[in-house]
Amino acid sequence: MKSFDDEKDGNFEASIPKELRNHLSVSNGTKFVDDVLKGTNESCLENFRMDKRVFFKLCDMLQTRGLLRHTNRIKIEEQLAIFMFIVGHNLRTRAVQELFRYSGETISRHFNNVLSAIMTISLDFFQPPSSNVPPEIREDPRFYPYFVNCVGAVDSIHFPVTVGVDEQGPFQNKNGFLSQNVLAACSFDMKFHYVLAGWEGSAPDMRVLNSALTRRNKLEVPDGKYYLVDSKYANIHGFIAPYPGVSYNQLEYGGTIHPQDARELFNQRHSILHNVTGRTFAALKERFPILMSAPSYPLATQVKLVVASCALHNYIRSENPDDWIFKMHEQPLEIVGDEELEHDPQVRNSIATDIWNDYIRDYDTIDDVVV
Prior knowledge:
45% of the residues lie in helices and 9% in strands. It is α/β, with parallel strands linked by helices. It folds into two domains: 12-124, no CATH class; 135-364, no CATH class. The protein has a five-stranded mixed beta sheet with strand order 3-2-1-4-5, with helices on both faces. A hairpin with a 5-residue loop joins strand 2 and strand 3. The longest helix is centred in the C-terminal third of the chain and has 25 residues, at 346-370. The radius of gyration is 23 Å and the shape is globular.
C-alpha cells in the first residue's frame, strides 16, 4: 500500500512540533504509547486528544464490536493512538513513522483501519434532538419561553480539500480556495445532531440543506420543532432565520444602547443562540487540526475524516464534557450581522412580538421603580 505521504518530503523532522520531538528518543511506538497511557490525563489529552478513561473505553468498544483486533506487533491501543496522533497533530506520515518506528505502509494501514472502524459506529454517536426543552433555553429568561420549540442551530463550514486537477472546478469556493461544504446541525450543548460532508465548495448552502432534508440518511426535524439558521438560508418549514436587513446592538443588559424594535431584539437573541455553531466548529478544529490542512488523502477519505471527527467530538463531549478543549469554547462568540432574506414566516413574527412585549414591560417596571 502506498503511503499518502510518499511525495517529496524534504526534512520530515521539521514537520514535528518542538514539544513532540523529545519522544523521538524512545525505542518504539509501543513504549511511547505506554508512557502516555501510564502518565497523566493531561498528557493523554494532549497527545491522543482525549483523556485516558475515554481512550480506553473507546478501545474496548471497538474491540468488543469486532472492528479492531490486536496484531502480533501492534495492540488496539497503539492502533488508535496512531490515528488520534495523526488527526490531532496534523503530522505527515513520514514524521509519524519516525515517532512510532513503523513503516509508512504500517502507519497508513492502521490509520485506515481505525478510520473505517469509527465510521462503522459513527451513527451511534449522532443522537436526534430530545423532545425536552434544552436547558440552555429553559434556564435563560432571554430565551424562555419564546424559543421552547427550538432544538438547535444549523450552519455550514468549509474544510480545505485536495482533489485532482480535473476535479478542482466545482470544489473552488467563492473565496477561490478548494474546499468541501459541510452542513451541521448542532445542539446547544455543543454536540452534532447531524453532519453532511462532501459537497463541493461551490455548492450553494440552500442546495446542501435541501440535500440533507431529502436524502435517505436525512436531517430530521421533529414535528413542531425548528432549528435556527443564519442569513445564508431561507426561512422554510423547520428553520428560522433572522430578519433581513435589520441591524441590532450587542448591549442589552447593563448598557446604554438597547434594541429599538421587536425585529432588532429578535435578531439579537437569535444570534446569541445561533453562535453555538461557531463554538462547536471551533472546538472541533482545535481537537482535530487535520481538518484544516487539505491532507493528501483520496477525496472519499477526506470526507470520512470530517464525519469521523464529528462523531468522536460527540463521543468525547458525552464522556468528558469538561475537558479543556470544550472549556475553551463554551463562552458565546461575538454577535455577527445579517444579510437580506426573502421570507418572513409567522412563527418568527410571533416570537419577536412576545419577546418585545415582555422586554418593554420589564423596562417600564424598572422605570416605575426608579421614579
